[in-house]
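[job 4417] fold queue: 2 targets
>>> target A
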Amino acid sequence: EEARGLIREVQEKLARKDFAAARLYYMKRRYDASLVYLRKIIETYPETVWAARSRFYRAAIAEAKGDAASAIEDYRSVLASRDAIPEKQDAERRLRSLERKAEGTRNADGG
């Protein structure tokens, strides 16, 4: 049990370090570089709070690149997360906006 706790602690620290790099690249709009770190966190440390936070930034990048479907999927994942993260409120706002746009597109297409 103690070993598991130490492993969890190390994973949290490694994920936090990668998240800092991902966020730095995101802020500089170097999205492809940011995605390298975000994907690594999501795949390698899925049980950490950093994975949920990474999904938010991955969604924001997808949204910026015009991939609404991927953005919606990740924003929903952020909202479903049990972690209390600072990005949740923004994820909810962005998700609602994307869903409204998608609904407007469906109505405009007659579907």
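>>> target B
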Amino acid sequence: PAQQGQGASLNKIMIRWKAEDENPASRSVSLAYSTTPNGPWTTIRDWDKDTGSYLWVVAGNVGPQLFVAVSARDAAGNVRRVVTSKPILVDLKKPSAKIVGVKSSAKGSRR
């Protein structure tokens, strides 16, 4: 699963996975994202050690929703890719607000 941060971590998504193989490659996991479940895919993290999680600092140019793919490979070169079943909603914009007016009522005034 993937989870977007909040507050100061708004532009960060924690990606977690579990890959198992008796003979994993030394650099056995890669991560990618796409706006559709079938790609095209953009690399988040190229083949690296299997750490089970990765904190992705998301650039502002990704769409409002995306799919994440985790690929795992073994020492023989066999690869298995798993894609999130539903899109991850990405909201990188902080809400804004402004005061449009303040009105006080005098003490003792009647309505």
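[job 4417] complete. Note on B: The chain has a mean pLDDT of 85.
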